[in-house]
């Protein structure tokens, strides 16, 4: 019974979000509830990449400004509205790093290390931490983006496909190829 209640609540929230998006396309003032709902998670996503509150706030503002001004181009493809926002956030973050020639940072938490480590069979998680860090730093920016989206942010392959403008299957294939590449760099069999 509880599952049914949670499911119907989620459907109601999804429907009201669709209504808000439709209203925001007509009148920008309806974008505010969407902003309020997603600001914190987009901010945290960007903060993990920049590790600077002021810079993160600046990039986050740009993300929501672009989302507001381009809301008419949003199309519901069966994914959460947040996937579209993350796509904008990732593009803005990457643009910042290219424009400023800034170093990318990788925020490794116990949870993110554990998530990646589960995909890389090892003997001792702590023994391989330096190897994991080294393997992550050797990845190309596009590869690192995919690993971060999947293991650090917990996105599904379908959401990753939407964010990176690739198919769901392509996201899976790329992810597992990157993991194989990391296994080789870590010399993990």
Automatic annotation (TrEMBL):
Coiled-coil region(s): none
InterPro entries: RNA_pol_sigma-70-like, RNA_pol_sigma-70_dom, RNA_pol_sigma70_r2, RNA_pol_sigma70_r4_t2, RNA_pol_sigma_r2, RNA_pol_sigma_r3/r4-like, WH-like_DNA-bd_sf
GO BP annotations, alphabetical order: DNA-templated transcription initiation
Domain annotation RNA polymerase sigma factor 70 region 4 type: ranges: 132-182
Gene3D superfamilies referenced in this protein's UniProt entry, alphabetically: 1.10.1740.10, Winged helix-like DNA-binding domain superfamily/Winged helix DNA-binding domain (1.10.10.10)
Domain annotation RNA polymerase sigma-70 region: ranges: 34-101
Keyword Transcription set for record: yes
CDD domains on file: Sigma70_r4
Pfam family, one: Sigma70_r2
Gene Ontology MF term list: DNA binding; sigma factor activity
Keyword tags: DNA-binding, Sigma factor, Transcription, Transcription regulation
Recorded family membership: Belongs to the sigma-70 factor family. ECF subfamily.
Protein name: Sigma-70 family RNA polymerase sigma factor
Species this chain originates from: Marivirga aurantiaca
């Amino acid at each position: 019974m509880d599952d049914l209640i949670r499911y119907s609540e989620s459907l109601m929230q999804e429907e009201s979000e669709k209504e808000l998006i439709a209203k925001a396309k007509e009148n920008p003032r309806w974008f505010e509830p969407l902003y309020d709902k997603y600001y914190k998670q987009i901010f945290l996503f960007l903060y993990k990449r920049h590790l600077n509150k002021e810079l993160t706030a600046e990039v986050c503002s740009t993300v929501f400004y672009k989302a507001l001004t381009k809301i008419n181009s949003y199309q519901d493809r069966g994914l959460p509205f947040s996937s579209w926002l993350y796509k904008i956030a990732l593009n803005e973050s990457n643009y910042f790093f290219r424009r400023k020639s800034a170093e990318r940072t990788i925020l490794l938490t116990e949870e993110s290390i554990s998530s990646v480590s589960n995909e890389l069979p090892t003997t001792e998680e702590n023994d391989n931490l330096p190897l994991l860090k080294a393997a992550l730093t050797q990845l190309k920016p596009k590869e690192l983006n995919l690993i971060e989206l999947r293991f650090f942010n917990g996105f599904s392959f379908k959401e990753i496909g939407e964010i990176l403008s690739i198919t769901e299957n392509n996201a899976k294939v790329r992810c597992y190829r990157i993991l194989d590449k990391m296994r080789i760099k870590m010399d993990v069999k």
